[in-house]
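Record format v2
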Amino acid sequence: MAQEKIKRKMRQKVAAPRDHARLFKTAQRYLVGGVNSPVRSFRSVGGVPVFVKKAKGVTIYAEDGRQLIDYCLSWGALILGHAHPEVIAALAKAIKNGTSYGMPTQLETELANFLVEAVPSMEQVRLTSSGTEAVMGATRVARAYTRKNKIIKFEGGYHGHADHLLVKAGSGASTLGTPDSAGVPTDFTHHTLSLPYNDLGKVEEAFKKYPQDIAAVILEPVAGNMGVVLPSKGFLQGLRKLCDRYRSLLIFDEVMSGFRLTYGGAQKIFKVTPDLTCMGKIIGGGMPLGAFGGRAAVMKVLAPLGPAYQAGTLSGNPVAVTAGITTLRCLARLGSYPSLVARTKKLCAGIQKAADDSGIKVRVNSIGSMFTVFFTDRNVTDYETAKSQNGTLFRKFFHALLEQGVYFAPSPFEANFVSFAHTDQDIERTIKVVREAFQKIRVSQAV
Ligand code: KE4
């Protein structure tokens, strides 16, 4: 009898009530903050996060019955849209062969080959299970190869949650207003220098101060974690020159920009080749997968060839790799990034015009198929200007869109994304909803 009662209780508990507040309350009972990654918590926008039942194309089907046009797309991973038929079919087949072997597979070689062919800086690659691990591996390789200690990063740049890089980080770290995370001893960040993005002078000063001890400069070639912030003219080229002059390595963290702006990395667009590149998101096609790679001469410091250790039980997992290969194969075939960029430009122009017509001060930063709506009239070129935006207006905007079935990233310090699955109708509907949202904000301000 007791067993039956427990089972019944469990069934009740697990049965997904369609009310998000109840789902969130139950989630918070078992999961810290009710989420498995802070930026999903709606902490910076208020309210209860959307619980997803399923997703297809651009549409999220929420547990409470709502259908939403998704511009977060698993934080940029789903450039083909949700549940792309070719990815699902490939996964259905791959899963029948097993889920993990912890042994080499030809699949991993195939994905690595895709990356080496597409990304100018990648001669040799190591696959991981996340972007954080890819960045951890790349910075360790840089320190081992150069035998130097310091790492330069940029304020508002987010490179995953490795201790030494959670210094004035962007994304969730900014969103939660705790740029320097608790639990990170200061001597773990002693060798991390965090400088203003787009300020080449400050970087040169740091190199002059530590001419023999800067292992690497790491940055998002297009910042996406303070919102979208573009590199100023000559910034990337200047970093390349400084790294060459001081025999340090340039690391592009392309976890977000990789295969987002073009087939390959932002490094192809800006014609600046780093020594190491980190990737994630898109290359895993929505499955847990990251990668780092670079010149063979640099990468060979990595175990089992060299003394820099890095490992992972599920690194190069065959199911995740299958999703990645299928995604990259589709992207190579589609090749039509220009249509994706054109749709994004149309959306961003529509958002800017709607704001201007409503008298709301907004700056829309975009490149390729990623964009951020900043509630400011300042040019957003770094973390300081990104932080100067009006968070209250962002929150009102976010919820006004959500009420009308449009889902943007739930944070002012994030990028939004257009996928190959977004249609012109989706874009037109979104512009209409955005216009209504700005008018609603206008009215609320007038009151
Ligand atoms: P992951 O460990 O989350 O796979 O990747 C870390 C990472 C590294 N580098 C860049 C440029 C990144 O954008 C990320 C992760 N991005 C955030 C959102 N901007 C992931 C969302 C989350 O933390 O839940």
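The longest strand covers residues 214-219.
The pocket of KE4 is lined by residues 37, 39, 75, 130-132, 135, 158-160, 171-172, 220, 224-225, 253, 255-256, 280, 290, 414 (CB under 6 Å).
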